[in-house]
Design a protein that fits this description.
- There is one protein chain.
- The chain is an alpha+beta fold and 284 residues long.
- The chain has two domains: 129 residues, MutM-like, N-terminal (N-terminal domain of MutM-like DNA repair proteins); 125 residues, Helicase, Ruva Protein, domain 3 (Orthogonal Bundle).
- The chain is built from six helices and ten strands; from the N terminus they run αβαβββββββααααββ.
- Strand 9 and strand 10 form a beta hairpin.
Length: 284
């Protein structure tokens, strides 16, 4: 699934190529991507036609395009979604779902093979769509309150990786970057939040910012052709990963083979030497 750096790469592309453009037409080629819009495919298209994009914003893994009049086009890429800017004459992509005609002789296309992503017309959502108001700020958001996040993490008994993935606590940190940040901070993902010092939580937050910032500089992490920017280009950060996807390979720090364990229907990768498992709490 595209994570925060990949979505930020898309947001920057939209900011560059779409902001200031007027939507001249909307064609919903499959109803599933707009399934959460109560207007339905026709109402979705009607509400957006003739509107001008004024900005491109993001919170966590959600992005939105504020429109003139104070509304917004809200989107989530799901597992395989792409927002592509194409010339109108370009052949339709195999999994093209929604096509937006723009007054710049270009098209904005939502392509989604697996169709877990989606688009929504958000009334009054220009500043922050109400549909995602419950989503916490992310580590790259300058308005994130670090002190409050540290306090909230240290009040919880859940494993720290679960806390990193809790979108109500801090958004945008997905499975890949959680494993990488934990490796950098030398913390095991099962370490309970209430057994971490404030300094350890701050270090983990700093490492999450560092790894996601590095991924952003390289266009994100692309394990296959589905993760691309608005021009269809893949990122290269997968070449810089230290533990994720490297089961059995030597740790870049100590040489111990990287281990993989099941985690929430996914996988966790860690170095058993650099990231020792926590001792179980004693029962009285």
């Amino acid at each position: 699934m595209p994570e925060l750096p990949e979505v930020e790469v898309v947001r920057r592309g939209l900011e560059r190529y779409v902001v200031g453009a007027t939507i001249t037409s909307v064609s919903v080629l499959h109803p599933r991507p707009v399934r959460r819009d109560p207007r339905g495919p026709e109402g979705f298209a009607t509400a957006l036609t003739g509107r001008t994009v004024t900005a491109a914003r993001r919170r966590g893994k959600y992005f939105w395009l504020p429109l003139d009049g104070g509304d917004a086009l809200l989107g989530h890429l799901g597992m395989s979604g792409q927002m592509l800017v194409q010339p109108p004459e370009a052949p339709a992509e195999r999994h093209l779902r929604v096509r937006f005609g723009l007054d710049r002789d270009t098209e904005l296309r939502f392509v989604d093979q697996r169709m877990f992503g989606g688009l929504l017309y958000s009334a009054g959502g220009a500043d922050l769509p109400p549909e995602i108001a419950h989503i916490a700020r992310d580590p790259l958001d300058p308005a994130l309150d670090d002190d409050e996040l540290v306090r909230r993490v240290r009040r919880r008994a859940a494993g720290v990786k679960r806390l990193l993935l809790d979108q109500g606590l801090v958004s945008g940190v997905g499975n890949i970057y959680a494993d990488e940040a934990l490796w950098r901070a030398r913390l095991h993902g099962e370490r309970p939040g209430d057994r971490l010092s404030a300094a350890q939580v701050r270090l983990l937050l700093a490492e999450a910012r560092a790894v996601m910032g590095a991924a952003l500089d390289q266009g994100g992490t692309s394990f296959d052709s589905l993760y691309v920017d608005v021009n269809g280009s893949s990122g290269y950060f997968d070449r810089s990963l230290h533990v994720y996807g490297r089961e059995g390979e030597p740790c870049h720090r100590c040489g111990t083979p990287v281990r993989r364990v099941a985690f929430m229907n996914r996988s966790s990768y860690f170095c058993p030497r650099c990231q020792p498992a926590p001792r179980r709490r004693s029962l009285r």
